[in-house]
């Protein structure tokens, strides 16, 4: 059948190579392009992470590094071979139907590894031929790892920069550690390897051939574990968001193998819960894209309301509602339109999401102030009221929403709908899942009903049962059946243990509100629901999740026996007459409900519900469960059938009295419900505040914050543990005068500033140094009591050593720039080459302040000559040093075009025959950097010598790169002018 979305990508003939690097990967990109062949049989796309609001000069830089034409990757452009394409930083680039497609980066909502490198690699991987290529260069984080996996799955080739040559090795290592690479190469070799991989005769290296398949199988195993154990079906999601979240958790738990992480979530239910809660992307707001909502009101809701039947309710569905902002936005529009009409109409909004905790938040309708940025003041006044510093939707509007958990991918949809708003969900789903869900939503709509999608979700739905209402805002109206007369092939929807659990919980909450726990066949607690306080108790000793150890000791034997009965009978039972040993506490009952797993056979999950015996027996046995009278020898067991009969007779005897009482109860029921709801909300807020205070206390006591508080008499009231680094404090020092404590830092104005702040209430600060040479920013603030009186001072210390060092480094950079300028000026004035390069040498040695010695050497044929820097005696010893791959230090650096870092010449085998020279002139560390011209010609080297063994820092490497580039320009000028023979 014809694909009604035309989403199957038409193959383009040109191969495409995608190069991903972070914002700090400029040097890596430069070296890659400078060694790239002048003609390439593929299109090259360069992807770099930059803030969306910054202007990128990357295209201009690449044009200086290569002779290949450099073009902008704009929407609708079809890539051609032998060209370089660079997307705008404020657009997300993908490849669809063989052409580039772009969408807005959505400001700050971009996520590393999803909306830039991985997004393009994912779209590129959907082509069957020709072979796609991916290159991952220097960068931090995991960007590109998920996309690289997709490229390998599709038969493409993944090339990674050797981490030993990368300034930032996070991105290369993220690919290498997951085993989804084909080649690990230095920058100089990547260009030629790309050309070789683009050849149809290329054969993938055997050692790493199956790693991507293994990673893919393990990802499928993780998805299946999440589906079986948490009831969350991820099979329709794109791998990029899933891998991004999984890799975050792997890095947090210090796990580098997908297999190991799969084993972890099998053994650790808490880790599984953390993973599941973090996977959905919940980005929503009130009236997002205000112009789109204007079109929705005027061109969609207006016609729907004008032609709706008086007795029929307008029905709206918001799947994937998150915290409910979008659903409440629709409800506000409909309520306004209803009030404007002479005859108001009724409407109902169904808000659903796969995450029950989000549905609960949407149902409460409580939002922070910043969430209402898109809501006008008039609407805030009409539909919200302020409580506890937040805004809550008024009951009249909340009652128009039905908030229930529902997985759009696996659960049945609603029907007979006038409007479905499903915005920005499909961008996270696979194309096949999108096609299926669009078919599901089409079937849920009435003829004339409207589908409202996100602005980045443009699909060719015209002629596929829809007509376009607004192409700009992706609003479509259902006008007839889909071509083919039915729904498209759907994603598999196996019944899951989580779905059975959700159904059981919905029934339980409809019948009675009870605390419950989910256990397995060994009585291990997997999850708790509701308030189990007073029922479950943590025993002394080693913590345990065994339910029989958490309940009162008197319940354990009967509970264990009941679990065995449930597993044998495969039907729910109730344990009654349970007492916890407290004479004042009421008896309780425990209902055990077996839950079926996805296999449909074994029942290895049991829902244990705790009910007080004043709850009705009918509710307990509403589903036909039996009441278990165990055979443990309890003579006082209650015959529940007789008691139920007696209770019904008593109820009938007092029926008239209850009817009268019921009328009175109805009158106050609404007030009680409102009060109860407000109390529940207040309790939730209180618990949140307690958790917030506990978190703040842990932060303050963690050692990261240095603070102390003095009272009005300058006596110590409170201090954080980290203050012991600055004062000789002990726990019993509270109440001592600050003057009695001798600080471990130099601050002559400390006590004077405390008194000034206490007297004048003006904060004061100063920069001080402690005994260890660290720089600290000391601030003193007045402490104001609730009465408004200054009741003491708060003193904080912040470590600013790194900032001070950065300022020093900045001043050094200014000195280096000045030296480069002076060296260029000397060369322009015709001074000797040694004088020009000597300026650079002196600046390097002076600014480093570590005793290093530096020298420049110039290449003459296949040998090196000393120019400036080292003594004449040393120059005579090394003059004429050979340039070859078998050489060491400068000779090897010029031969290979790569830096040669020798941390300790005494430990390097190549130096064995030259250690006499190092000992004679007193150095142990030797770094050599090649000097090349802008044309790529190697003309010499820069050497640095150190008294002790040492390796370079990133600043050392950047400095060497800058000065060798300057030296290359100067030497090339002397070569061109013929003055080089002066040496």
TrEMBL record:
Q: Which GO terms describe its biological process?
A: chemotaxis; methylation
Provide the Gene Ontology terms for cellular component. Answer: cytoplasm
- What sequence ranges are listed for the domain CheR-type methyltransferase? 215-458
Active site at 22, 49, 143
Q: Which GO terms describe its molecular function?
A: kinase activity; phosphorelay response regulator activity; protein-glutamate methylesterase activity; protein-glutamate O-methyltransferase activity
EC number of the protein? 2.1.1.80
**Quick check: keyword Electron transport in the entry?**
no
Q: Which InterPro entries match?
A: Bact_Chemotaxis_MeTrfase, CheB_C, CheR_C, CheR_MeTrfase, CheR_N, CheR_N_sf, GAF, GAF-like_dom_sf
Superkingdom of origin organism? Bacteria
Q: Which residues form a coiled coil?
A: 648-696
One family name in Pfam for this protein: CheB_methylest
The UniProt keywords, alphabetically, are: Chemotaxis, Coiled coil, Hydrolase, Kinase, Methyltransferase, S-adenosyl-L-methionine, Transferase
Ranges of residues in domain CheB-type methylesterase: 16-201
Q: State the name under which the record lists this protein.
A: protein-glutamate O-methyltransferase
What are the leading ranks of the lineage?
Bacteria, Pseudomonadati, Pseudomonadota, Betaproteobacteria, Burkholderiales
């Amino acid at each position: 059948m014809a694909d009604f979305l035309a989403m199957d990508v038409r193959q383009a003939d040109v191969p495409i190579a995608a190069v991903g690097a972070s914002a700090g990967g400029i040097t890596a990109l430069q070296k890659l392009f400078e060694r790239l062949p002048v003609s390439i049989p593929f299109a090259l796309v360069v992807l770099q992470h930059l803030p969306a609001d910054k202007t990128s000069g990357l295209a201009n830089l690449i044009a200086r590094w290569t002779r290949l034409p450099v073009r902008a990757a704009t929407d609708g452009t079809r890539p051609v071979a032998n060209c370089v394409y660079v997307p705008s930083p404020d657009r997300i680039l993908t490849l669809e139907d063989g052409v580039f497609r772009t969408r807005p980066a959505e400001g700050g909502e971009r996520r590393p590894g999803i909306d830039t490198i991985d997004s393009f690699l994912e779209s590129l991987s959907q082509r069957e031929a020709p072979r796609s290529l991916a290159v991952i260069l220097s960068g931090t984080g995991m960007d590109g790892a998920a996309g690289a996996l997709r490229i390998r799955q599709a038969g493409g080739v993944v090339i990674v920069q050797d981490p030993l040559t990368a300034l930032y090795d996070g991105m290369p290592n993220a690919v290498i550690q997951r085993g989804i690479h084909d080649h690990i190469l230095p920058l100089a070799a990547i260009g030629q390897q790309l050309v070789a991989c683009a050849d149809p005769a290329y054969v993938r290296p055997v050692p790493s051939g199956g790693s991507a398949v293994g990673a893919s199988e393990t990802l499928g195993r993780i998805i299946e574990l999440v589906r079986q154990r948490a009831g969350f079906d991820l099979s329709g999601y794109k791998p990029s968001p899933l891998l991004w979240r999984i890799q975050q958790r792997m890095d947090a738990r210090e796990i580098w193998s997908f297999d190991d992480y799969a084993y972890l979530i099998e053994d650790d239910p808490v880790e599984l819960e953390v993973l599941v809660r973090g996977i959905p992307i919940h980005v929503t707001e009130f009236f997002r894209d205000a112009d789109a909502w204007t079109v929705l009101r005027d061109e969609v809701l207006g016609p729907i309301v004008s032609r709706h039947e008086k007795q029929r309710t307008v029905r709206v569905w918001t799947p994937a509602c998150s915290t409910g902002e979008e659903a409440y936005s629709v409800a506000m529009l409909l309520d306004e339109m209803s009030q404007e009409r002479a005859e108001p109409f009724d409407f109902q909004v169904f808000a659903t999401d796969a995450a029950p905790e989000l549905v609960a938040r949407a149902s409460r309708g409580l939002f922070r102030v910043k969430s209402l940025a898109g809501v006008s003041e008039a609407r805030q006044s009409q539909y919200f009221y302020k409580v506890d510093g937040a805004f809550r939707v008024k009951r009249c509007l909340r009652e128009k929403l039905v908030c229930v958990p529902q997985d759009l991918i696996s659960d049945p949809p609603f029907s007979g709908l006038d409007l479905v708003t499903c915005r920005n969900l499909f961008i996270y789903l696979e194309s096949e899942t999108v096609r299926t869900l669009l078919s599901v939503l089409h079937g849920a709509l009435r003829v004339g009903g409207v589908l409202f999608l996100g602005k980045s979700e443009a699909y060719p739905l015209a002629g596929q049962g829809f007509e376009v209402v607004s192409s700009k805002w992706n609003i479509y109206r259902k006008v007839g059946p889909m071509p083919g007369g039915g729904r498209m092939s759907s994603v598999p929807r196996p019944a899951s243990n989580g779905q059975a659990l959700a159904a059981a919980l919905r029934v339980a909450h409809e019948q009675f509100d009870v605390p419950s726990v989910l256990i397995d066949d060994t009585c291990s607690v997997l999850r708790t629901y509701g308030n189990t306080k007073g029922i479950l108790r943590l025993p002394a000793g080693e913590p345990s999740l065994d339910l029989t150890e958490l309940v009162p000791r008197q319940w354990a034997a009967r509970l264990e026996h009941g679990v065995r009965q449930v597993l044998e009978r495969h039907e729910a039972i109730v344990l009654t007459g349970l007492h916890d040993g407290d004479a004042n506490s009421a008896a309780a009952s425990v209902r055990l409900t077996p839950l079926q797993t996805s296999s449909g056979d074994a029942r290895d999950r049991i829902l244990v519900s705790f009910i007080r015996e004043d709850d009705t027996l009918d509710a307990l046995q509403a589903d036909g469960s039996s009441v278990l009278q165990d055979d443990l020898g309890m003579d006082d067991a209650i015959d529940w059938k007789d008691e139920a009969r007696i209770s019904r007779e008593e109820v009938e005897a007092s029926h008239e009295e209850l009817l009268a009482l019921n009328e009175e109860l109805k009158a106050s029921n609404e007030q009680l419900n409102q009060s109860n709801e407000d109390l529940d909300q207040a309790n939730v807020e209180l618990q949140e505040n307690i958790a917030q205070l506990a978190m703040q206390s842990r932060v303050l006591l963690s050692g990261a914050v240095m603070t102390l508080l003095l009272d009005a008499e300058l006596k110590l009231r409170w201090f954080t543990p980290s203050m012991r680094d600055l004062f000789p404090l002990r726990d019993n020092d509270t109440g001592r005068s600050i003057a009695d404590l001798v600080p471990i830092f130099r601050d002559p104005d400390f006590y004077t500033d405390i008194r000034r702040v206490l007297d004048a209430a003006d904060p004061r600060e100063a920069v001080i140094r402690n005994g260890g040479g660290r720089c600290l920013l000391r601030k003193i603030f007045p402490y104001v009591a609730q009465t408004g009186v200054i009741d003491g001072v708060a003193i904080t210390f912040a470590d600013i050593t790194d900032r001070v060092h950065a300022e020093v480094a900045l001043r050094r950079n200014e000195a280096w720039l000045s030296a480069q300028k002076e060296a260029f000026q000397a060369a322009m004035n015709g001074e000797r080459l040694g004088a020009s390069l000597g300026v650079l040498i002196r600046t390097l040695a002076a600014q480093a302040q570590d005793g290093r010695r530096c020298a420049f050497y110039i290449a003459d044929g296949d040998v090196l000559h000393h120019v400036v820097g080292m003594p004449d005696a040393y120059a005579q010893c090394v003059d004429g040093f050979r340039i070859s791959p078998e050489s060491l230090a400068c000779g090897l650096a010029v031969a290979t075009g790569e830096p040669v870092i020798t941390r300790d010449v005494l430990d390097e085998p190549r130096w064995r025959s030259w250690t006499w020279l190092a000992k004679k002139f007193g150095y142990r560390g030797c770094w050599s950097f090649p000097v090349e011209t802008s044309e790529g010609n190697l003309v010499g080297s820069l050497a640095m010598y150190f008294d002790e063994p040492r390796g370079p820092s990133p600043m050392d490497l950047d400095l060497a790169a800058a000065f060798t580039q300057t030296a290359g320009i100067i030497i090339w000028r002397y070569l061109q002018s013929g003055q080089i023979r002066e040496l």
